[in-house]
Amino acid sequence: MEHQAGEHEGGEAAAVTGAAMAGAEDQTDAPRRALLVRYLASHDQPCPNCRYNLRGLTAARCPECNLALQLRVSLVHPGLVLWLTGLIGLSLGTGLAVMMNVFMVLRMMERSPMTRQQESQWLWAVLLPALVLGGLLTAYVRSRVHFRSWHRATQRTVVGTCWMLSVAYLIFFSMVIE
């Protein structure tokens, strides 16, 4: 049976990770290093830093870039593509709202006269949405760990909502500001 690098029968994955380590390595890690060497004796696995094939490695360091390596368990599919798509969508709306706030502050600093109606428009079209979108973005970033455990339909709904909020803000902003 053919497997991808780092994948065993049954679908579980082992990942080799690299880290720059200063000084001598801890002697309590000797069994872990031995397990890594044993694993790489029969598996093609690229170095996470330089992509050098580590098959047949005799020490817990990449012979190409000399970084220390460790064996660890990781998810086969991290499931962050949808989450990142939602993050980008919500960030666009939040970024636009923040940029408009900066513009507003700069305009106020040069003391351009604003009518009451303009002030009200800026409050509703710029400040309030920036606060709301900023709060939603903060909550969304904090949801990253739990996002993977949600049903796929729920994930797609949340991601679609992130994009719709940004598009809705853009439409609202263009209608309010002439």
Structural key phrases:
mainly alpha, two-stranded antiparallel ribbon, 7% strand
Q: Would you summarize the structure shown here?
A:
With 178 residues, the chain is mainly alpha-helical. Helices cover 54% and strands 7% of the residues. It folds into 2 domains: 14-73, no CATH class; 81-176.
Overview of the molecule:
- With 178 residues, the chain is mainly alpha-helical.
- The chain has two domains: 14-73, no CATH class; 81-176.
- 54% of the residues lie in helices and 7% in strands.
- The chain contains five helices and two strands.
- It has helices at residues 30-40, 81-109, 116-142, 144-147, 152-176, and strands spanning 14-19, 68-73.
- The chain has a two-stranded antiparallel sheet with strand order 1-2.
- It is elongated and about 75 Å long.
Mean pLDDT: 80
Oligomer: single chain
The helix tally amounts to 5
Measured between the Cα atoms of the first and last residue, the distance is 65 Å
Helical coverage, percent range: 40-55%
